[in-house]
Structure formats: structure tokens, C-alpha cells
Amino acid sequence: MAINPPSILIVDDDPKIRDLTSQYLTDQGLNVHAASGGKEMDVFIASHQVSLIILDLMMPEENGLAICQRLRGSGNFTPIIILTAKGDEIDRIVGLEMGADDYVSKPFNPRELLARINAVLRRNELKQSQNSNSENLAFGPFLFSSDTRSLTKNGVPISITSGEFELLKVFIDHPRQPLSRDQIMQLAKGRELDVFDRSIDVQISRLRKILEEDPTSPKFLQTMWGFGYIFVPDGDAAH
After folding, report:
1. Is 103 a residue whose pLDDT tops 60?
2. Tell me, what CATH number does 206's domain have?
């Protein structure tokens, strides 16, 4: 039985980059489409199934960060690889926190982009497989649902970003298992840590404000000093 190749949508206002990237990825057997910006992207995804979006950050009408935030906010969790100018560390961090799956700096080697695409697609396939077998989890006053991608407290929906949700899911999938920052980032994003190490601590701090009665003395997301963090569903001491 023939397997349809992944459908890749390139969103970039630079026609040269769109054309060259499209040609290379097409030559590698991918089903490639292109859009010059958010409006063309919206038209295409409204009537087509997309496996992955390659999203440029610097676009005149609607920048990539805004597009990424809009997609995730509307419940669209198609994998996204963002294209950033070399050295734009803050944009990369913000993009990942808004729910992008990976980034590639311009100018980029097409072979590197292809490798990132294949890695993200593999992780997404694994994540979907895990989600299909996952169950809702109740802990304390909270109910976590991977099916509806929601978190409620005493039945009341709680506002949670896609990045916070994915991070919480890592802990819920690994209860009472000490996780280092490297392990957390790899499980949540599937990429090695470098400058993003500190963003884990920031995200943990945000989750604690959501989950803990006293974030300075957490019961659910506890610190393993000298190692990382551990999720304790019943709120008991980790040791």
C-alpha cells in the first residue's frame, strides 16, 4: 500500500527562499506547498491537511510569532518549525514558548532543515500515538485531559498556554520520576538544550502558580535539588 508523503507548508514572504526550499524538499520526496504570508496560509489550511508548517518570523503583514500564537490559540497544533535570523535568541525562545516545535537559523543548510523536519514529524507521530492511549488524570482538585487539552480545578476550566500544557503533560506521563532539565526539554520539545535551559525554570514557576496553593512550597511539582524536578500526584513528599 502506498504511503502518502508528508505535506509541508512553507510560509515565507521571500519568493527566492520559498522556491529554493520548495524545490529541494520536493526533490526529497515531500509534498510541498508555499504561502507568502498568514492570509495565504489560512486559505490553504482551511481546505488541506498539513503535516508541518515552516514559518518565517520576519514577515511584513503578520509576523511569525503572531501567526504561531494565533494557530495555537485556535487549537491548531500542526507542528511548526520557525525560521529565524541568526542571533535572534529572544525570538527563538519566545517562538518555542508559544508552541513552535523547533527552529532553524537563516541562512540554513537545506539538509539541516530536512533533518529537523523528519525529527519533528517522528516526534509528532509518537506524541499522537501516546495521546491516543492516554487517559485523563485527576490529582488534587485538578483534572488533566489530553483528549480535550484542558485543565480544570474543581470543575472550573483553567487558562493554560500550549507550552505550559506540554510541560505539564511531560510530568503527568512520568509521575514520581525525577527529571533533569535536559530530559524535560527533550520530552517536551524533542531537542537538546542550550540557551533554553533557563526557560524550563520559568515554565515550572508559571505552572506552580497555577497548581500550587503556595508556589514557594510546592506539593505537586517538587524540586529535586541538584538534579531537576519531580511530579508527585498525591502531593506527598518525594522521598
Report:
1. yes
2. 1.10.10.10
